[in-house]
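Today's session is about reading a structure prediction critically. Students often jump straight to the picture, but the first step is always the sequence itself: look for stretches that repeat, for charged clusters, for runs of hydrophobic residues. Only then move on to the predicted structure, which in these notes is written as discrete structure tokens rather than atom positions. Here is the chain we will use throughout the hour.
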Amino acid sequence: MIFEGSMFAGLKIILDLRCIRSGMTGIGISALQMVSALAKSRCGHQLTGLFLKGCVPEEIRQSGIEILEVSVDHEHHPMGEFWLNFSLPRLLSSRGADVFHGTAFLIPWVKTPFRKIVTIHDLIAYKFPETYPWGFRKYIKWVTRFSAHHADRIIVPSENTGHDLQAILGVSADKIDVVPHYAPSAFRALNGGEKEVQRTALALPDKFILNVGTLEPRKNQIALIEAFEIIRRKTSLPHHLILAGREGYRAGEILDKINRSPCAKYIHYFPELDDERLSMFYALADVFVFPSRYDGFGLPVLEAMASGTPVIVAETSSLPEVVGDAGIFIPPDSTGEIAKRIISLLSDKKRLSEFRERGIARAALFTPERTASLILSSYEKVAR
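Below is the predicted structure for this chain, in token form.
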């Protein structure tokens, strides 16, 4: 970590945090995590957060980070791109910026007097293009390629995303820094008494399997629903299935699957959960199942482990490096195998306890201090 006495202390760093807003999903959540971690570090740099007007979280306003609010949304095309490449560089130059960090795929692609770092979270548009609408797929592929080749350094959340960048876009490994996420302290295990109080307050089933993530084909909830139907048909396990997450692209297909399921009365969908309620859902679940076909990191898995809930995850993309030996792996498209491994775990109290402890220990390795240290190290590298 960079402290006051560092030769790199005193950098003026601008972070583009316009992805932080109401209703944000993975990218916005990761950006908020990152800036929260940086705010608590004693880095000796001048940190400025670039936010959309009215979207600055209160915790950030009170953190001491300088706030710069603008009215131009990166989701507004093509005005957002013109502003990014023409107005923003002039604004940052007038403020004497040394480093600009685009936390959501975007940096100015024009030549600038300041150094540029971009966070590229995943390469879904390249590896699973069918999971995005046509127009957005073309756009995100284009901006990812431009940003990757115009950045001085690239931050990725996992080794897997780094390997994808090298293989698909030809980015040099020397240009990539891996900065994993962490589970905030709100995600923690509950004792028996706390569980009963919260379960009653939230009116949740006594036994349930949990999945958290945007409702979309890439997250593979349909395979989980079909595996759950096998479990209800072939066993006497009393568990319900809870799906939590906002509706994404082609969510209607998944909702239709739920409505037509012979087990529909045992399947519950929660589209909106604040962090407090979500943390309780994690801690009260008997098992967390995440059969996603591809994730840049898979933060819900880490949150589940930190909450003391055993995890069963797909053996794909970044998930094995996040979970390590603290979870059970499944082939994402074999509903029979998914069902078999859920049944095996739920039927074995000793293994449930073992994976609960392993998950808590594994999640404890991912900390805000580690995240901040690695980000600051990336800033140091471009300052040399």
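Discussion point for the tutorial: The first helix runs from residue 26 to 40.
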